[in-house]
Amino acid sequence: MAQLDLRQKLAILADAAKYDASCSSSGTTRRNSAGGKGIGSTEGMGICHAYAPDGRCISLLKILLTNSCVFDCHYCINRKSSNVRRARFTPDEVVTLTLDFYRRNYIEGLFLSSGIIRSPNYTMEQIVRVAQSLREEHDFRGYIHLKTIPDADPELVHQAGLFADRVSINVELPTVAGLTRLAPEKSVPRIEGAMRDVRTAIEDLGDARKRYKAAPKFAPAGQSTQMIVGADAATDGDIIQRASGLYGRFNLRRVYYSAFSPIPDASAVLPLRRPPLMREHRLYQSDWLMRFYDYRASEVADAADPATGMLPLDIDPKLAWALRFRDRFPVDVNRAPREALLRVPGLGIKAVDAILATRRWRRLRLADVARLTASIAKVRPFLVAEDWRPVALADRADLRPLVAPKREQLELFAA
């Protein structure tokens, strides 16, 4: 590693960071350097992002401090027994890269994670040193997201929150059994204990800032976590229930889902094939239903196949739930409350708000609803309008083929 130059290290450690999905920058405080002081900003479009070929949104400067690790988690390509090329940045090198990339307008912030070297405390000290140097020595006001290590001293994790906009601690796998089997060196109680400490610090210092302006900020963009999907036997129902529990107990901003990717020289206990990326997409849609559409976790889990516990891949969870609970429909767009309208497949939050605003002045017709949705064919069986009642559709046993998205053959060189 000592013979690698900075460009070679960057190539290795930026590639090693692509498996971290939790790089969103939403929710932070507004800072800028318009007054001639400091460097960097979180305003405007926020963090610059790139979109990977598999659809993940990743930060342009998203790196590991090192891909060396003393742990041997079966699913991790950077595990101790993995045959990959290793590299390691010094804290000063990460600071230099961040500032140089920012001055060239390549990035708006830093996403920093790391394998564990020497010990969790030593690694956490190195991560904190990067953020502290950027903030205190260079007055960097851009976005910083730090992946923290649950086994590290709580005081080090606390220091990370004082310098970072967001901190995250990965729960890794959805079930205790999966983590015990695939990452025996990691502990659910330690992971959740660290997440609880972060939540407490966010709440305590948030309350302190309401009373004292001089009180320090602590992770103003909150905390997030990430789960690997498809590495163990957890069903979509298990994952949904786990995510709901994490949101409730730790007040997380986001739970990210990362489809398991087969790795070189993989352990025999791992699946031979990756799960379909559509499964990851359906879990994000389920997450959205819980966060913004007032679905309970048990309701979202009801959209899964009762035999397998898996969400259907050909239709979205909201439509799957509606097809399973046909007795809740049709919904009258001119009379139904907001929570009932949010259950109608094809109607989003903006569409529902527009319906509620418009119907105060006149009764809505089907054509009015059609202007608010991308597919009126998907919506029609589930609603009643001034000039529409789904008499012929309401009792059809073969409704699913009519409302499911049509499969199309894409053309590579279409005009």
TrEMBL record:
<protein>
    <submittedName>
        <fullName>DNA modification/repair radical SAM protein</fullName>
    </submittedName>
</protein>
<dbReference type="InterPro" id="IPR023874">
    <property type="entry name" value="DNA_rSAM_put"/>
</dbReference>
<dbReference type="InterPro" id="IPR058240">
    <property type="entry name" value="rSAM_sf"/>
</dbReference>
<keyword id="KW-0949">S-adenosyl-L-methionine</keyword>
<dbReference type="InterPro" id="IPR007197">
    <property type="entry name" value="rSAM"/>
</dbReference>
<keyword id="KW-0479">Metal-binding</keyword>
<dbReference type="InterPro" id="IPR010994">
    <property type="entry name" value="RuvA_2-like"/>
</dbReference>
<dbReference type="InterPro" id="IPR051675">
    <property type="entry name" value="Endo/Exo/Phosphatase_dom_1"/>
</dbReference>
<dbReference type="InterPro" id="IPR013785">
    <property type="entry name" value="Aldolase_TIM"/>
</dbReference>
<keyword id="KW-0411">Iron-sulfur</keyword>
<keyword id="KW-0408">Iron</keyword>
